[in-house]
Each structure stands twice: as structure tokens, then as C-alpha cells.
Amino acid sequence: MTRISAPQALIFSISTLIVSLLVNILLYQSHNDKNAELAEQAQTITELNDQLTQQRQLKSTQFARLDEMTGQQTELASIIQQLQGELKTLSQQQQSSAETARQAQQQLATARSRIQTLDQELKTAQQSLEQARVTIHNQQRALRQTSATQASVSTELSTELAAQLSSYDRDISITTAADGTTLINIPLTLLFANTNLDLANDAETVLTSLSEVLKQHPDRRVQVIGHADARPIVSDLAQTYPTNWELSSARASRVVTFLIDQGVSDHRLLASGRAANQPVRDGANEEDWSVNRRIEVQIQ
């Protein structure tokens, strides 16, 4: 075996030391490179974490925005539905308004036609009214003339009757009413004897004179009215005439029958009884009863 010399051993030792140093340097350099790489990777991881956090925040924001947009979409859908309903209502109202307008136009046309008809009717009515006024004026003038004539005739008739009848009994009253009717009140005692239906002595003379005047005025209607007093009938007449109604009517009929016999037309004559319902006096004594018992002749 060859022995190594001291210098060789020293060189070998130095070489070994250098190699070891180089190895350590290389190892250190490798370690530093790894640390740098690790640091770089850590930085990258940090950046990635930051990006992930940002992405998460962005995603959260986007989800929130999405929720907000979803809510807005729902709200918009509700608004759209409401607007569609309002649009439908407005459309229906428009159709209804159109129908109402059409009906209003028809009613307006009908009203105008009615107004024209009424206007024509008014003109016709005005013409008729004017004609009626003329007719009424003529009738009033004729009525005044007739009234004047009737008044003249009534006055003449009253004068004739007064001349014929007043001489028989001063209690015979002859008056003329406002309508031209001549009223003659003849006491019952002048026409009937003993309150029965037998004519008194002067009755025929009085009634004959009355009939002569009536025949001279054939256009006048004559009503004969019997009046009684308020006392009930207690004589034998009660068997035939139980009340003053029957008795007063019978007396008026008796006078009418006599006038017919004297030639007065029966178409002009009317007999009626009033019992005691139209007294001249309200007293309850013989004098008043006597006045109330009468025959009234109305010449119209």
C-alpha cells in the first residue's frame, strides 16, 4: 500500500473541505431557492386567497343583486298584471262609454224629434187657443146679448105675472134671480082648502092666469115645488101621505096637472116636493108654519 504524503494529505484535506464547502454552498443555495420559491408560492397563495375572497364577495354581491333583481322582477310582474287589469277595465269602460254615447245620441235624436212634434203641437194649440178665444169672445158677446134679452124677458114676464096674480093675494111674491129665473111663491091657503089636495075657490083663477102667461113664453121651463111645515101629518091624509115628502110632492103634482089641463106643455113642467127642508121662516108658531106652507113656481 502506498503511503500518502503529508502535502498530499493536506491537499486532500483541503480538497475535501472545499468539496464539502461547495456542497454546503450548493445545499444552501438550493435551500434559499426553495425558500424563495416557497415564499413566492406563499405570496401566490395569499394573492389567490385574496382573489378568492374577492370572488366570494363579488359572488355574494351578485347573489344579493340577483335577489334584488328577482324581487324587482316579481314586483314588475305584479305591476304589469295590475296595469293589464286596469287596461282591461279602461277598455271595458271605453266600450261602455261608447255604448252610452250611442244611446245618448239616440235619446238626443228622439228628444229632438219629440221637441219638433211638441213645437208643432204647440203651434196647433196656439192656433186652436186663438180660435177658442175668438169663439169665447163671440159666445160671451152672444151670452151678454142673451142675458140682456133674458133679463128683458124675465122683467117682462115678472111684470105680466105681477099684473095677473098680485090682484088675487098680496102675499104672492114674484122675484127674479140673478140667472134670470122668475120665482113665484104662492101661499098654500090660496091654492088648497083645509090643507088637503082639493083646490081652493080662487085656485083655478090664479092657476089659469098663470097658465096664460106661461103659454105666451113657450121656451121657458117650469118647475113646481111643494113646501110643507115641520109638523108631522096627523090628519086622515097620513094614511095616504105618511110624511111631508109625499104630501108636498102630491100638491106640486096637483098644480102641474092643472096647468097641463090649461094647455101648458107637459114637456116643460116638473113637479117635486121639499117637505119642510127649505123654510122661509124658522119659527115654531102658526104664523111661521103658514108662511112655510107654500107652492113655489120657478120659471127658467
UniProtKB/TrEMBL annotation:
PROSITE patterns reported in the protein's UniProt record: OMPA_2
GO cellular component terms given for this protein: membrane
Transmembrane spans: 9-28
Keywords from the named record: Coiled coil, Membrane, Transmembrane, Transmembrane helix
Coiled coil (UniProt feature): 31-142
Signal peptide: none
Domain OmpA-like intervals: 179-300
PANTHER family in the cross-refs: LIPOPROTEIN YIAD-RELATED, STATOR ELEMENT OF FLAGELLAR MOTOR COMPLEX
Protein name in the entry: OmpA/MotB
Organism the protein comes from: Reinekea blandensis MED297
